[in-house]
Amino acid sequence: MSQKPFQFKEFTVQQDKCAMKIGTDGVLLGAWCEVNNAESILDIGTGTGLIALMLAQRSDAELIDAIEIEPEAYEQAVENFENSPWGDRLFCYHASVQEFAEEMDEKYDLIVSNPPYFQRDEQIEGKRQMARQSVSLGYVDLILATSKLLSQSGHASFIIPFAKEGEFLKIAREQGLFSSRITRVKGTATASTKRSLITLSFAEMKTQTEELILEKERHQYTDAYKEMVQDFYLNL
Known about the structure:
This protein is α/β, with parallel strands linked by helices. The chain has one domain: Vaccinia Virus protein VP39 (Rossmann fold). The protein is built from eight helices and twelve strands. It has helices at 24-32, 50-58, 71-82, 97-103, 126-132, 139-149, 165-174, 223-229; strands at 6-7, 12-13, 40-44, 63-68, 90-94, 108-113, 150-161, 178-186, 193-201, 208-213, 215-217, 220-221. The strands form three sheets. The protein has an eight-stranded mixed sheet. Helix 1 (24-32) packs parallel to helix 2 and helix 4 (97-103) runs parallel beside helix 6. The longest helix has 12 residues, at 71-82. The radius of gyration is 17 Å and the shape is globular.
């Protein structure tokens, strides 16, 4: 995948040091999650810093923190934050989510994460796969940290493989977090569902469910997808 900077409408993301490059998943989560006048935001496993940057553009939150454990990705996120229009509101911590949750007393109104795909028992090879696996950030650790760091009236949003949705929601329920909104994502109308966008909160309520289709045909994007990401992509 290209090492070139990724130019969005209001900011640029350098990605040459990161194993995981800019992808549709991160953009989807950054555009989909509800900001709801959040005053404090946390991006867990920020990578390039993409989602935190998108939320800085979308919100007036005074505090936007991010966590990244991989050293080169951490350095890249810091660089991207400092070179953005919102450098005074963005801060990245070089830590694991477990360490951060243990040491941080801050509560956040909005927590977001595009977590690794693979579980501990699945084969991983190479740096890019290491960035995607969950030895250092499994769903249990992610949900435990979220339940500790989320404000009582706040919400947390994630994008995960659709196949892991049931497992993820079960872990969340065990920690007192319940789904309020789920959008299931398909590449085309006839394709299988690939991703689940999930919002959790401490309040039990009826889950609002939706479907999002990205393309009518190859490179012909649906109106719903274009409307969602139009404030970010230069060319759509």
